[in-house]
Design goal:
Helix content: 40-55%
Oligomer: single chain
Largest sheet: 5 strands, mixed
């Protein structure tokens, strides 16, 4: 809306400037009464003619003929408009109207010289008077010398060069402006299509992540139910909280980091019921993170992998999870021990690949993901810049 208002203001300013040129310059700066032209039909004929040409070419001919590659029809109409300008002569009419209002702009010439109409006056007879008799007083101010003839008027031209020149300028300007607007529209549509494509891809990725995440969690609760664990009801409540987050909040592009952490906490509590005493969890989450935005479930893939591949029924292990946040960004760190038997049975899941794609879409140039497997430790460090 603001862009359209800006365009209207530019058009109004341009036409006011165009209308002012004849008033200011048509008398060559010799007369201060140019405003009298506003009362003359020839002035408004001049303005309306070029006003019509600009918008008729820009908003009718260009979109309906030129841009649709109907070049023959377009140039045929342009030639007809050119012929109309040739016969109408709007600039010549304006000059003659101004000449009638301001007779002082007409030139006067001696009777012995040729005038613009091509008629010649017979040459003067040689002067035989002595030189001393040729000296005569200069005429007083206000007295026109008698040897000057009547004022010369501009002859009516068959070829109005200025009208044609303005015609070419107006047509070229309207064509250029309209083509640039069309190019900008195409660029906007391409950008919107790219954004829609990215949104569709993100929705698809979320649709892949959500069932994957819920499937793993339901497996955990199924195990508790088989063991007739008394913590099964509490686990179902935590799963309910997770499902509410996944189905409602995770449909948004961004949520608060606190919501994401709450979901992670519920997930970790569900995992505690399953992993037993051989696995220790070192969880460190900074406070005051509620207002920091983050893409939903962006951290959950790494959390899932930690509990999926970082625990063992026979060996002790430590799982480290750290989430830090401030006004400028988020830092996530997780680490688990690598067990050979887990790596051998490891499937090439879609979670990590989809997370990388989401990071590219949502944090282009604003994230750093480092995954390391040194010292038999699987380490993930993710830094997100939110500003």
């Amino acid at each position: 809306m603001r862009f359209k208002v800006y365009q209207v203001i530019i058009h109004i300013a341009g036409w006011l400037l165009f209308m002012a040129f004849p008033l200011l310059f048509i008398n060559g700066g010799q007369s201060g009464e140019g405003y009298l032209l506003l009362k003359e039909p020839s002035y408004w004929l001049f303005v309306i003619t070029y006003f019509f040409l600009y918008y008729f070419n820009g908003y009718v001919l260009i979109p309906n003929l030129f841009l649709k590659k109907r070049y023959v029809g377009y140039w045929a109409v342009v030639i007809l408009l050119f012929a109309g300008i040739y016969f109408l002569k709007p600039y010549d009419r304006l000059l003659r109207c101004n000449e009638k209002q301001n007779p002082a702009v007409a030139y006067t010439i001696p009777p012995g010289q040729a005038v613009l109409t091509g008629h010649n006056i017979p040459p003067l007879q040689p002067d035989t008077q002595p030189h001393h008799q040729m000296d005569h007083p200069q005429p007083q101010a206000g007295n026109m010398p008698q040897h000057f003839g009547p004022p010369m008027r501009f002859p009516r031209r068959h070829w109005d060069m200025f009208s044609v020149f303005i015609f070419l300028i107006i047509m070229a300007l309207s064509t250029a402006v309209r083509i640039i607007q069309q190019w900008q529209l195409i660029e906007q549509r391409a950008t919107q299509a790219e954004a829609d494509k990215a949104s569709a891809e993100l929705s698809f990725l979320k649709a892949q992540i959500n069932p994957h995440f819920l499937f793993n969690t339901l497996n955990n609760i199924y195990t508790l139910a088989l063991m007739k664990d008394e913590n099964a009801p509490d686990s179902i409540m935590k799963l309910s909280n997770i499902m509410r987050y996944v189905t409602d909040d995770a449909t948004k592009d961004f949520v608060s980091l606190q919501d994401e952490v709450d979901c992670i906490n519920d997930y970790i509590e569900l995992q505690r019921l399953r992993i037993g005493e051989k696995t220790a969890i070192d969880l460190d989450i900074s406070k005051d993170i509620g207002s920091i935005p983050i893409a939903p479930l962006i951290l959950m893939t790494f959390i899932e992998n930690v509990f999926k591949y970082g625990i063992s029924k026979h060996n002790k292990s430590v799982i480290v999870i750290k989430i830090k946040g401030n006004e400028t960004g988020i830092h996530f760190f997780c680490q688990n021990k690598i067990f050979p038997e887990k790596e051998e049975n490891k499937r090439s899941g879609i979670g990590l690949s989809n997370t990388r794609q989401r990071l590219e879409h949502l944090y282009p140039g604003k994230y750093m993901l480092d995954i390391d497997t040194k010292n038999e430790l699987y380490t993930v460090e993710l830094t997100l810049r939110t500003k």
